[in-house]
């Protein structure tokens, strides 16, 4: 005779599973803090270790909201230390500026651009990187390599963009002119990036976890083991893209004939997906549910996928995560509202108009978020 399952046993199993899940998140946050304090003092590392080990059992019982408060406290400490380091960096540069005309020139030009835009600075001031925010609020990092003969020798520039602009330079040019040219270059690339975003959101991209915005190609799944490699014209992204087919000979030959036959039907004012399906005479696979949810994961601050449906949140009520760290090795998702509240809680956060500048809570790389994403 079979015995009836014990309800208490089932409840205990559920509670045990919930506790294990909480402990897993606890471990995740411990590793997160260790990563963040990697370049900070041993004192700060010991503080974090104490928080996550000595009080481990107590933390498992805490709500995720309290977790957020604890992490805010820890990271406020970390970024306060980082702010002190930035002040020390400025003092070091001031001292160097007294020793040669090169150092004096670089120091004065960094001040013109603004220390709040500085990301990294080489020990001999020949390497500089600035954060630049485009008109859509996306953060870009521009790296500059200086020769000791600067400004007679033009600087070398690199950044995560499809191509570097043609630098206009003279002996009278300054770093602020370089930043301005980069900003103008970013503005020219907006239509290209909008086209890439449209492709990434509407089609099934191969290796779509982190499609690069610096690449003009996308590999798209067609079906039956066939792929298309599209090359988007950076200067004219709404035009007919170059296309290369990959797959079995019979499928590829059929698709290639259809493409050539219908090339004249491409219309610049149509959505990219509609154009492709019109040319290929087939319905292309859409992003899978998993791919759609890549950016709809839990927020790195409130640990919820969706904001609560309450009046206080306003029009953002019930919305999913809508911001991701630009660092390709991080890409942590957040609610922009949570990120704004987080940044405002830190004394190191800087604001320019309606944009807050700070650091990612996970990888410490520069981030920027518009303040108009907050509740009304």
* Average pLDDT taken over every residue: 76
Class inferred from helices and paired strands: alpha+beta
| Global Rg | 26 Å
Query: How big a fraction of the residues is strand?
Result: 15-25%
How many helices?
Answer: 11
Helix amount, in percent?
A: 40-55%
Task: Record the strand order, biggest sheet.
Answer: 1-2-3-4
Global outline: globular
Concise overview:
This protein has 11 helices and 12 strands. The chain has helices at 7-36, 42-53, 56-60, 64-97, 101-113, 175-188, 190-202, 249-262, 272-280, 289-292, 336-344, and strands at 118-121, 127-133, 139-145, 156-159, 217-223, 226-231, 242-246, 323-324, 333-334, 350-352, 355-359, 366-370.
Key attributes of the depicted protein:
disordered N terminus, 3-stranded antiparallel β-sheet, 42% helix, 376 residues, alpha+beta, 11 helices, 12 strands, 4-stranded antiparallel β-sheet
Kindly describe this structure:
The chain is built from eleven helices and twelve strands. With 376 residues, it is of the alpha+beta class. A hairpin with a 2-residue loop joins strand 10 (350-352) and strand 11 (355-359). Helix 1 packs antiparallel against helix 2 and helix 4 packs antiparallel against helix 5 (101-113). The strands form four sheets. The chain has a four-stranded antiparallel sheet. The protein has helices at residues 7-36, 42-53, 56-60, 64-97, 101-113, 175-188, 190-202, 249-262, 272-280, 289-292, 336-344, and strands at residues 118-121, 127-133, 139-145, 156-159, 217-223, 226-231, 242-246, 323-324, 333-334, 350-352, 355-359, 366-370.
């Amino acid at each position: 005779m079979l015995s009836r399952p014990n309800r208490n046993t089932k409840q205990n199993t559920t509670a045990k599973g919930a506790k294990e899940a909480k402990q897993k998140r606890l471990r995740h946050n411990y590793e997160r803090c260790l990563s963040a304090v990697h370049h900070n003092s041993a004192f700060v590392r010991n503080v974090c270790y104490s928080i996550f080990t000595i009080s481990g059992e107590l933390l498992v019982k805490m709500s995720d909201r309290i977790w957020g408060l604890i992490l805010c406290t820890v990271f406020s400490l970390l970024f306060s230390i980082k702010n002190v380091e930035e002040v020390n960096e400025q003092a070091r540069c001031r001292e160097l500026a007294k020793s040669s005309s090169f150092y004096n020139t670089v120091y004065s030009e960094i001040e013109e651009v603004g220390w709040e835009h500085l990301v990294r600075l080489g020990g001999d001031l020949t390497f500089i990187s600035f954060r630049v925010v485009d008109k859509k609020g996306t953060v870009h990092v521009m790296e500059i390599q200086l020769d000791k003969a600067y400004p007679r020798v033009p600087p070398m520039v690199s950044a995560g963009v499809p191509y570097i602009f043609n630098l206009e330079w003279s002996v009278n040019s300054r770093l602020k002119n370089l930043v301005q040219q980069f900003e103008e270059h970013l503005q020219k690339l907006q239509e290209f990036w909008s086209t890439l975003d449209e492709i990434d959101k509407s089609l099934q991209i191969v290796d779509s976890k982190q499609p690069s915005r610096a690449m003009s190609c996308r590999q798209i799944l067609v079906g039956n083991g066939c792929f298309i490699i599209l090359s988007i014209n950076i200067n004219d992204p709404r035009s007919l893209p170059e296309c290369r087919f990959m797959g079995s000979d019979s499928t590829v030959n059929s698709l290639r004939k259809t493409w050539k036959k219908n090339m004249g039907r491409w219309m610049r004012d149509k959505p990219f997906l509609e154009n492709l399906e019109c040319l290929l005479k087939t319905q292309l696979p859409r992003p899978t549910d998993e791919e759609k949810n890549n950016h709809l994961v839990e927020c790195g601050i409130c640990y919820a996928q969706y904001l609560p449906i309450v009046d206080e949140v306003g029009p953002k009520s019930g919305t999913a995560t809508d911001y991701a760290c630009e660092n390709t090795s991080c890409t942590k998702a957040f609610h922009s509202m949570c990120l704004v509240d987080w940044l405002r809680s830190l004394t190191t956060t800087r604001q320019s108009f309606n944009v807050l500048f700070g650091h990612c809570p996970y990888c410490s790389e520069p981030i920027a978020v518009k303040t108009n994403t907050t509740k009304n």
